[in-house]
Specification:
- The structure holds two protein chains of two kinds.
- Chain A is α+β, with helices and mostly antiparallel strands.
- Chain A is 41% helix and 26% strand.
- A five-stranded antiparallel β-sheet of chain A has the order 2-1-5-4-3. In chain A, strands 7-6-10-9-8 form a five-stranded antiparallel β-sheet.
- Chain B contains four helices and five strands, in the order E-H-E-H-E-H-E-E-H.
- By secondary structure, chain B is α/β, with parallel strands linked by helices.
- Chain B has one domain (11-141): 3-Layer(aba) Sandwich (Rossmann fold).
- Classes of the chains: A alpha+beta, B alpha/beta.
- At the A-B interface, helix 18 and helix 19 of A face helix 1 of B.
């Protein structure tokens, strides 16, 4: 059934519907079952730009901007069915002028009284402005969000229930540990508790109670924020927490990273504390007007001023040493900027007028808005006293070193001298300045240089000091012995300086040598004494024992009435007794000569030869001996002992002669290297070279037969004692075959 | 051997540069109880070496200091070098010298002070140092 004209729709509520229809701000079209627009209200005419006549001549599909969309809607609605559902969707329509606009489409069915659908009421709501407004809002929101993400400060908003509404990434980055809990809708307290659990807040305390107390304080500040607070969120990170409450009871929080500022502030505070606490006086002076801007506690205490009082002063007011002009002249380079730092020794005057010496280090600081001077002053009264004491001690030390009898040198490792004391310089015949810079190895005799350098090379880090004895030649040729203590100084393992101290030990060395010689002599005498012991215990025992035995035998035979052997036994007793007597006499002679104190003097050897020969005049006559003295030497020895030595040798030559030949003795001399050699040779029976050493033993005899060669066997032993007691020697010439030849050598003789 | 002959008396060689010592020792041997003991005397080491080389010496009394030699350390080895394997005793008026303790190193079997030599000492030495040697000789004779 065709839809009636709206005029025909005047039902009981017609007037109401008509008014509604005409006054609706939205476009309304009435479409019949044949898809014809049968009515359009004023808003529809205005919206689409068509007159009602034009609209009613159109089909609704013609108003759609998109044909596919039009077809879809048409297929949805037509043919009209019993379904009375409402179609509601957003579509685009095209106006008469061709423009397209978005609109909200609402289609409802019109039913006849029978219930059958007869048409559609189409309501079209222009969404152009709505969508534009929405787009504008979205844009603003996007800009706001971008802006929030752009700022470096953390930003968060909590609603009146203290639930997180939004926060930017900077906020999450600041609270990195708590970030997982920062979800929209979570309460501020739960986020804080999460952070506490995972260590977000280093200052919250260690124990559970401490953290709970900190939490309550934090919530209190959050609920009723006052002034911004500083919060530590990591080991080296601090943020400033700034929270506000909006009129709508929202809490807006801003977090600013102030780590750098905080550190600088801390360091500055520490620096300030240090400057305040240092013992040095610290002043800050304005270069422009010369006034003291500030001073630390030490300065105030030393000068006895308050900070306020000292701020009224200038450096000139506290300076007591320099005139204003002098001070200005000294400080001028700082004021002019040509010098950055100056050190001035001066005196400061206290408030009470007393003064004290101080050293002021002045430094210009250009980093301030106005150039200032930072001055560090140190009371050097004690230091000056110490320095003066040190100078005095150094002077004393230098005087001591200069006057010490020891040689003192400092040199580089290659022996280049850097310091020489006067004593050493005088020894070399040079002055100190001439020696410094020269190598002291050059003052050492050439043969000793290599050994000396080896000695220095042996000084190591582990054994840096060694001593050595060195013979040195004075400038005038005098030789002296010095004990050098050489210390090598090392730096980083490398030798850098050699410090040497030399002490004259000539006398002590000579004394030492004398003692050594005496020790040798003592040892020899001990040996001789030991030999004496042996002689007493052996050689003297033998005849004694024999005398005793023969006496026993005589007694036994007499007791037995035997008389045959008594005479022989008696003869043996007599012979043994004589032998014993001779040995005792010889021992006495030996002891007298062997331990006689030596009195050296220079004498011609020939004089001792003559004396010895004269002493043997009886033997000489008896043997027919002849002497050839061909010596031409001077000996430095004990004359009597040397005479005895020669006499013993001559006696042997006379005694051990060959039967058919008169003994001939020839004495010659040689001199070489400070040694005098006296050679005594004879034409006697000679001595087997096998016994060249044993003949010098005490009581050593080569011939037992007393009838042929009588003697005690002590003569040559005595000769050796005499020679050795003079530091010399006596030996048998093993090569000599025509008799016996002895060579006596003595030191310190002169040809 | 066809029959048992009388045992040969032990022969002692005295080496001493003092002939008087021979007279004294001979007198002492006369006082020794028991079998006869023969004594030979030489005044120096050269003759001693010749004598031991000839054989027949059972025991040597060697004076410590033989002129012109030094002491037994020089002379005793000469006897060993001459092939003498029997006992050698060093005799001296004084044996207190420290070097006497080294006597074994020089082939010497014992040392003795001359004043210690008497009949009992000689008997003991003969029995102590010549018994085995004689036994061996006898054992060989009876093979």
């Amino acid at each position: 059934m065709p839809l009636a004209h709206p005029a025909h729709l005047m039902f009981s509520s017609d007037s109401l519907l008509k008014a509604l229809y005409e006054s609706l701000p939205h476009a309304v079209l009435v479409v019949d079952a044949d898809r014809n627009i049968v009515a359009a209200n004023a808003a529809a005419q205005t919206l689409f730009g068509y007159a009602e006549r034009e609209l009613t001549a159109m089909r609704p599909g013609q108003l759609h901007a998109e044909e596919a969309e039009s077809r879809d809607i048409g297929e949805t609605l037509f043919p009209l069915g019993t379904d009375s559902g409402t179609l509601h969707r957003q579509v685009e329509f095209r106006c008469k002028d061709g423009s397209v606009f978005p609109a909200e489409l609402t289609v409802s069915h019109i039913h006849a009284e029978s219930g059958a659908p007869v048409g559609l009421v189409v309501m079209i709501r222009d969404l152009t402005e709505v969508l534009a407004a929405q787009a504008e809002q979205l844009g603003i929101e996007r800009i706001l969000k971008t802006a929030l993400e752009t700022i470096s400060e953390g930003f968060a908003v909590y609603d009146p229930d203290d639930r997180l509404v939004l926060c930017n990434n900077a906020y999450k980055e600041i609270y990195a540990i708590s970030a997982p809990a920062m979800q929209t809708g979570r309460t501020f307290e739960s986020i804080i508790r999460y952070g506490l659990e995972y260590g977000q807040y280093p200052e919250a305390g260690e124990t559970k109670e401490e953290r709970e107390q900190w939490l309550q304080m934090r919530l209190s500040n959050h609920t009723v924020p006052s002034t911004p607070m500083v919060q530590k969120v990591a080991a080296e990170r601090w943020v400033q927490v700034d929270e506000r409450v909006t009129e709508d009871n929202y809490r807006v929080g801003l977090r600013t990273d102030i780590s750098t500022l905080w550190r600088v502030k801390s360091e500055a505070e520490r620096l300030g504390t240090m400057l305040e606490g240092v013992a040095q006086e610290v002043y800050l002076v304005n270069l422009k007007d010369g006034r003291i801007l500030s001073a630390n506690r030490s300065a105030l205490e030393n000068l006895q001023y308050t900070l306020e009082e000292i701020r009224e002063l200038t450096p000139r007011d506290i300076n007591a040493d320099h005139s204003v002009f002098d001070l200005a002249e000294k400080i001028a380079p700082i004021i002019a900027g040509s010098a950055k730092v100056l050190t001035i020794d001066t005196e400061h005057m206290r408030k009470d007028g007393t003064t004290y010496a101080c050293r002021v280090r002045v430094e210009r600081l250009d980093t301030e808005s106005e150039p200032v001077v930072m001055a560090f002053a140190e009371d050097i009264t004690e230091r000056l006293a110490i320095e003066r004491s040190l100078e005095r001690k150094q002077h004393e030390f230098e005087t001591l070193v200069a006057n010490l009898p020891d040689f003192i040198t400092r040199s580089r490792p290659d022996t280049t001298l850097t310091y020489v004391n006067d004593h050493y310089a005088r020894f070399t015949g040079l002055n100190v300045d001439e020696m410094v810079g020269r190598r002291f190895i050059d003052f050492t005799p050439e043969p000793l240089r290599a050994g000396l350098m080896d000695h220095f090379a042996s000084l190591t880090l582990e054994a840096p000091i060694k001593t050595m004895e060195q013979e040195m030649v004075r400038f005038d040729g005098v030789r002296r012995w010095y004990l050098w203590s050489n210390l090598m100084v090392f730096d980083d393992g490398a030798p850098v300086e050699l410090v040497s101290v030399g002490r004259d030990i000539t006398e002590s060395r000579e004394a030492r040598e004398r003692i050594a010689a005496q020790s040798r002599e003592l040892s020899m005498r001990n040996d001789a004494l030991e030999q004496f012991g042996g002689v007493v215990s052996h050689d003297l025992k033998a005849p004694l024992r024999q005398i005793q035995l023969f006496a026993d035998m005589i007694a036994e035979d007499v007791a037995a009435g035997k008389t045959d052997d008594l005479e022989m036994y008696s003869t043996h007793v007599s012979e043994r007794a004589r032998l014993l007597q001779r040995m005792i006499t010889s021992l006495f002679e030996y002891s007298q000569l062997a331990y006689q104190a030596i009195t050296r003097k220079h004498f011609e050897v020939t004089s001792a030869i003559t004396a010895a020969w004269d002493n043997l005049s009886v033997n000489v006559v008896e043997s027919g001996g002849r002497l050839k003295d061909e010596t031409n030497a001077i000996a430095y020895a004990d004359f009597d002992l040397m005479t005895q030595l020669l006499q013993n040798l001559f006696a042997n030559s006379l005694k051990y002669r060959q039967d058919a030949r008169a003994p001939e003795i020839r004495v010659t001399s040689q001199y070489a290297d400070g040694i005098v050699s006296i050679i005594i040779e004879d034409n006697g029976i000679g001595i087997d070279p096998v016994y060249a050493e044993s003949i010098f033993g005490v009581f050593q005899r080569l011939h037992r037969d007393e009838r042929t060669y009588a003697g005690s066997g002590i003569g040559l032993s005595l000769c050796r004692r005499i020679a050795e007691s003079h530091g010399g020697s006596i030996v048998l010439d093993r090569e000599f075959r025509d008799g016996a030849r002895f060579v006596v050598q003595l030191p310190f003789g002169r040809a | 051997m066809t029959g048992q002959s009388a045992p040969t008396p032990p022969l002692i060689l005295l080496v001493d540069d003092d002939p008087t010592e021979q007279l004294i020792l001979k007198r002492k041997l006369q006082s020794v109880d028991g079998p006869k003991i023969d004594l030979e005397y030489v005044p120096d080491i050269g003759q001693a070496v010749e004598r031991v080389s000839a054989g027949g010496i059972d025991l040597i009394f060697l004076d410590n200091r033989l002129i012109p030699n030094n002491d037994f350390r020089e002379t005793a080895p000469l006897l060993r070098q001459a092939g003498f394997v029997g006992p050698i005793g060093i005799i001296s008026s004084d044996i207190s010298g420290a070097y006497f303790r080294e006597f074994r190193e020089f082939g010497v079997d014992f040392r003795m002070g001359k004043d210690e030599i008497d009949g009992n000492a000689i008997s003991f030495i003969i029995s102590e140092y010549t018994r085995d040697q004689l036994s061996e000789t006898c054992a060989e004779d009876f093979l």
